[in-house]
Amino acid sequence: MPMASSPSLSVSAPLSLPLPCAFQRPFIFSPSRTIPNPTRPASFPFHSRTFPRVPSPSHLPLKLLCSRQSKAPVTKESWEKSILKSEIPVLVEFYASWCGPCRMVHRVIDEISAEYSGKLKCFVLNTDNDSEIAEDYEIKAVPVVLLFKDGEKRDSVVGTMPKEFYVAAIERVLKS
C-alpha cells in the first residue's frame, strides 16, 4: 500500500511491532547446555560438571571488621544528658540499619573513636528508631555525622567521605 504524502497521516489500526526483549526470544536447546537436576544443587551457568563445595559460614573463622564497643547508641531519652550536657566534644553518627554507605562510615568512625578516646565521645543514632531527633537537626538523608561542643552543633559531614574529612572537622571543633 503506497504511503500518502499528506502532512497528517492517520492510522486506524494499532501497529503491532515485535519488541526487542530477551523474554520474547524462544529458548534454543543446545548440547552445551544441560537441564539442571532438581536433586543436585544448581551451579551457574547450569553446567554438568560439579564445583568444589564452599564451606558453610559456621565452619569459617569469624573475623570482626567493626567493633561496636567504641561507639555507644544514643536515643531521644539519653540525648540531652549524653550530647547536650557533655563536658567534652561529641560526635554523633546518624545512620539507618538498611543503609550500605552507613556501614562504611561506621568503620571510619570506629577508627576515629579509638584515636580520639578521651578527647571526643562518639555516639550513633538510628534515624529509623529516633526520627524526632533527626527531624530536629534537619537530617534528610544518612549517613550524617554531627559534631557538638558545649551543647551546640559546631560542624557536620554529610555523606560517605574519606577519613581525612572527618578528622579535619573534629580538629576544627577541638580548636574552637
TrEMBL record:
It comes from the Eukaryota. It holds the Pfam family Thioredoxin. InterPro entries: Thioredoxin, Thioredoxin-like_sf, Thioredoxin_CS, Thioredoxin_domain. Residues 29-176 form the Thioredoxin domain. The keyword Disulfide bond applies. Signal peptide: none annotated. SUPFAM superfamilies: Thioredoxin-like. Keywords: Disulfide bond, Electron transport, Redox-active center, Transit peptide, Transport. One of its GO terms (molecular function) is enzyme activator activity. GO terms for cellular component: cytoplasm. PANTHER family: GEO12009P1, THIOREDOXIN M3, CHLOROPLASTIC. This is Thioredoxin domain-containing protein. It comes from Castanea mollissima (Chinese chestnut).
